[in-house]
Design goal:
The structure holds 2 protein chains of 2 kinds.
Chain A: E1 4-8, H1 12-24, E2 28-32, H2 35-45, E3 49-52, H3 65-70, E4 75-80, H4 85-94, E5 98-101, H5 106-121, E6 129-132, E7 135-138, E8 143-146, E9 149-150, H6 155-166, E10 171-173, H7 174-182, H8 190-204, E11 214-217, E12 221-224
Parallel strand pairs in A: 1-2, 1-3, 3-4, 4-5
Antiparallel strand pairs in A: 6-7, 7-8, 8-9, 10-12, 11-12
Chain B: H1 2-8, E1 20-24, H2 30-44, E2 48-54, H3 63-78, E3 82-87, H4 91-102, E4 106-112, H5 116-122, H6 125-132, E5 137-143, H7 148-154, H8 163-183, H9 189-207, H10 209-227, H11 239-287, H12 292-307, E6 310-317, E7 321-327, H13 336-348, E8 352-353, E9 365-371, E10 374-382, H14 395-456, H15 462-489, E11 498-500, H16 502-512, E12 521-525, E13 533-535, H17 537-554, E14 560-568, E15 571-577, H18 596-599, H19 610-621, E16 625-630, E17 637-643, H20 654-657
Parallel strand pairs in B: 1-2, 1-4, 2-3, 4-5, 12-14
Antiparallel strand pairs in B: 6-7, 6-10, 8-9, 9-10, 11-13, 14-15, 15-17, 16-17
Helix pairs in contact in B: 2-3, 4-6, 8-9, 8-10, 9-10, 9-11, 10-11, 11-12, 11-14, 12-14, 14-15, 15-19, 16-17, 17-19
Classes of the chains: A alpha/beta, B alpha/beta.
């Protein structure tokens, strides 16, 4: 049975476009044009994922993220023209799985959706070993291989890579990464994280260009690319 | 014209249209005179002046008299007349000299109803003026006489002279007596009498009437006792000698009167000069300042210094009624009553508060500061003791200060209005340029998209799809820039600065600008060991997007676009380099000006219009600077964002990241 996606957007043109795109990609689609409608549809249709626009006519999209998450643990992808960084962080903190800016790249939207759904499916049975290209990260044994050779990572590098790997394909906010790797320490500063990421990239990416494995979301956080 | 006439030395009343002068006196009814003069002036359509002749008598004015003169002069100003005060020894002379100076043709004056006897004694000012001022029409209005007794009753106590004066006088008389006794064998009696003139004149001129009379009396007694036969008694045998005594006394009276008058006039002139110097200094000081708050503070401080009172200056603030603009002391207090009085003064243009006729319960005296017919501010003065804030004889000075201050405030207000108008004009110009930019930059890609979409009906080709995608991206970029510019213009840039890795920033920008850079090779040369910088990641991203977009647009097709980060001489330079025509030499910096492309002669050269202006605005908001230059060798343009040392971060301690 195909995954069911709820598209929440007040613009009929966007809904039509998304319906076409998602249907072609093999999903089942239901639509809602405002927050009230969205909550009703979520209750009756039990979607697997919600593509949520923030600028809804009746109430702010941010305010219904938690309500949507509470039902059936549907994944929520925010699709919004708002590009304020703090709103993105707020959406993630409220439980959104990811966000995509408008205007969006259709392929990228589908890729993010795939990642979010896969993560949901494997929520109960999180993999012990995360693999990506020539990289494999053994979360239990704290060992990282690249192209068959074991990489030597510092403790902080390993902590950062682990939290990104657990959410592979999804953005993890600075705060969450800092909490995971510097949690017990008084000083939690973004500049430490920057340097650790810089060192990690040298070990994981070179000679590929910067950002090919760990990408940066402006002002929000980092993402371990799904591949 | 007046100056010219004066320069040519043409005397007399020389009529070039009517000029009206109204002579204001300290008597009640002065304001009636002023109103009458205004009516005459209106009828004749001539300029008019209210004149006060400051005679030595003015020193003995009561407070009420001072106030009447000040009120009449203020009224004249309010009715549109000029005012003048001239010092003179008597009213007739003063009026005459002013009439000649001002080339007046009409004189309005009052005639008090005084007794025939008084006029017989003093002569009538009106009669003398009419007789001695040919060519001037004199309007005479009857006014109420001041009660002679009232004035005398309020006169300052007569000067009885100082003990020192009497001592010196006595000593002088004694000295003359001694000298005359010693020389008596060579002098006759008449010469001795002449010698006694010396102490009398000296005493009268130095110490005034009473001491002079005293000198005359003592001299005549000494003369009588020591020299007039029978010597040693106070009896006079020869009636001729009686004349000598009377002459001595007479000279004492005459000399002292003369000296007293001269001195009084000198005092008046000195006081006038002081006032003028004060006003000139006040004005000079204030014209050197260009900011309202500062001027207001200076007004308060100066008025406090000159009149020794507490001063507040209130001015209307938009939407809030009157507010305190400045005060001479930080701990002034204005209660509800004071505020009401100030507001009344502002609204009605009349003084209110203590010492005025309105809302006198307030501790403060509020005077409106007027420019033209409109009050622009209110000046309040008060004294600690609860007395009237301003002595009546200080009122003219205060009125002058307020007039001058009002002029200065009005000038500042007009200047700021001019600036506002100029700003609005600039904004309108920008808005017009923006509109034309919007219509061009939005319509061009839209046209392409619509045309390509129409073509799709005949079947999709990769070119058509590419066109639609590319032009839509251009639109997207332009809309983002419009939003950015709107934020800059609205002053609503909210910085969210964090430690930023430039290799992240450059990679992200190059990724997002990939379509604009299609057809170019892109080389990112940002060493991984550059220090982190403090920046707003979003704003920096938009800066880089615009620079890359610019390079993609103006770099020759197929050439390389390089992003280069360099750390040297204590600053960090991030440059975007292209291969292309470059910038017009000498005009490199202009490309960052808003709408430069539109205003410049060459549309193609100036850059992306909005884009580079945004680069500059954002970079400067974050504390960076921008630079545009041609590459060495002239093979293209180089745009550089420069991070000063203070935006660079030191590497964290190794244990923090281990």
């Amino acid at each position: 049975m195909p995954a069911k996606i709820l598209v929440v957007d007040d613009e009929a043109a966007i809904r039509r476009l998304l319906r076409g795109t998602l249907t072609r990609a093999g999903y089942a689609v239901v639509e809602a044009e405002d927050a009230r409608d969205a909550l009703r549809q979520a209750a009756s249709e039990h979607p697997d994922a919600v593509l949520l626009d923030l600028g809804l006519p009746d109430r702010d999209g941010l305010s219904i993220i938690q309500l949507l998450r509470a039902r059936d643990a549907a994944v929520v992808l925010v699709v919004s023209a708002r590009d304020a960084v703090d709103e993105k962080v707020t959406a993630l903190d409220l439980g959104a799985d990811d966000f995509v800016g408008k205007p969006f790249d259709t392929d990228e939207l589908l890729a993010r959706l795939r990642v979010a759904l896969r993560h949901r499916d494997h929520f109960e049975t999180a993999p012990k070993i995360v693999t990506r290209g020539d990289l494999s990260i053994d979360l239990d044994r704290r060992i990282v291989h690249r192209g068959g050779a074991e990489l030597h990572l510092t403790r902080k590098e390993y902590d950062v890579l682990t939290v990104l790997a657990r959410h592979i394909g999804r953005v993890v906010t600075h705060d969450r990464v800092l909490a995971a790797a510097w949690g017990g320490e008084e000083e939690r500063r973004v500049e430490y994280l920057r340097i650790v990421i810089r060192n990690l990239r040298q070990k994981l990416e070179a000679p590929e260009p910067v950002g090919s494995v760990i990408s940066n979301e402006l002002g929000v956080g980092y993402r371990l690319r799904a591949g | 014209m007046l100056d010219e006439v004066r320069a040519l030395g043409i005397g007399g009343t020389w009529a070039g249209g009517d000029r009206i002068v109204v002579a204001v006196s300290e008597l009640p009814g002065a304001d009636e005179l002023v109103r009458a003069a205004k009516r005459v002036a209106d009828g004749l359509r001539g300029p008019w002046t209210a004149l006060f002749v400051e005679t030595p008598r003015a020193a003995g004015f009561t407070d009420a008299e001072h106030a009447r003169v000040a009120a009449a002069m203020t009224l004249a100003t309010q009715l549109g007349g000029a005012v003048a005060t001239v010092p003179a020894s008597n009213v007739v002379e003063g009026i005459q000299s002013f009439l000649i100076d001002a080339r007046a043709t009409q004189l309005v004056m009052g005639k008090s109803r005084r007794s025939r006897w008084f006029e017989l004694r003093h002569g009538s000012v009106v009669d003398r003026l009419i007789r001695d001022t040919p060519g001037v029409t004199v309007h005479v209005l009857p006014i109420e006489a001041g009660h002679g007794g009232e004035r005398r009753g309020h006169r300052r106590p007569a000067r009885w002279g100082t003990p020192l004066g009497y001592t010196v006088t006595t000593a002088m008389v004694a000295a003359v007596t001694g000298a005359a006794s010693a020389l008596f064998h060579v002098l006759n009696l008449g010469n001795v009498a002449l010698l006694y003139l010396l102490p009398v004149m000296a005493a009268a001129s130095l110490y005034g009437l009473r001491t002079g009379l005293f000198a005359g009396l003592v001299s005549s007694l000494a003369y009588n006792f020591f020299f007039l036969p029978p010597v040693g008694t106070l009896s006079i045998s020869n009636p001729e000698n009686l004349v000598s005594v009377v002459v001595l006394l007479g000279i004492a009276v005459a000399t002292s009167q003369l000296t007293a008058r001269v001195r009084a006039q000198a005092d008046l002139a000195a006081a006038g000069a002081r006032t003028n110097a004060t006003l000139a200094g006040f004005l000079r000081q204030m014209t050197s300042v260009g900011e309202v708050g500062q001027v207001a503070q200076m007004i308060c401080d100066d008025v406090r210094r000159l009149l020794d009172v507490h001063v507040v200056l209130l001015a209307p603030s938009p939407g809030h009624g009157l507010g305190v603009l400045a005060a001479s002391d930080a701990d002034y207090r204005l209660d509800v009553m004071d505020t009401a009085a100030a507001t009344w003064a502002f609204d009605n243009g009349h003084p209110t508060g203590k010492g005025s006729g309105t809302l006198a319960a307030s501790e403060w005296l509020f005077q409106p500061m007027k420019a033209g017919d409109r009050a622009i501010a209110v000046l309040g003065v008060a004294r600690d003791s609860g007395r009237d804030p301003v002595r009546a004889d200080q009122l003219p000075l205060l009125a002058s200060l307020i007039d001058q201050a009002a002029l200065v405030l009005e000038r500042l207000r007009l200047e700021s209005e001019m600036r506002d108008v100029e700003a609005v004009r600039t904004r309108d110009r920008l808005r017009a340029a923006l509109l034309s930019s919007v219509s061009h930059d939005l319509r061009t890609p839209l046209t392409a998209v619509i045309a390509a979409a129409a073509q799709l009906h005949h079947g999709a080709t990769p070119e058509l799809i590419g066109t639609i995608e590319g032009e839509a991206q251009r639109l997207n970029r332009f809309v983002a820039n419009l939003l950015d510019m709107a934020r800059v213009e609205a002053g609503a840039l909210k910085l969210s600065v964090e430690a930023t890795d430039l290799s992240d920033a450059v990679t992200g920008a190059a990724h997002d600008a990939r379509r604009a850079l299609e057809g170019h090779r892109v080389r990112l040369d940002v060493p991984p060991d550059l220090p982190l910088v403090r920046a707003d990641p979003q704003l920096l991203h938009h800066c880089l997007l615009n620079l890359l977009d610019n390079a993609g647009r103006y770099g020759d097709p197929g050439t390389e676009v390089v992003v280069e980060g360099r750390h040297r001489f204590g600053e960090l330079r991030l440059s975007v380099l292209d291969h292309g025509p470059g910038l017009p030499p000498g005009r490199e910096a202009e490309v960052f000006e808003t709408f430069r492309r539109l205003e410049g002669s060459d549309r193609a050269i100036g850059g992306t219009g909005l884009g580079l202006a945004i680069v500059k605005a954002f970079a400067e908001a974050m504390g960076m600077s921008v630079e545009a230059a041609n590459r060495e060798g002239g093979a293209g343009a180089a745009f550089t964002v420069i991070f000063p040392a203070r935006l660079m971060m030191r590497d964290p301690a190794p244990e923090s990241i281990a």
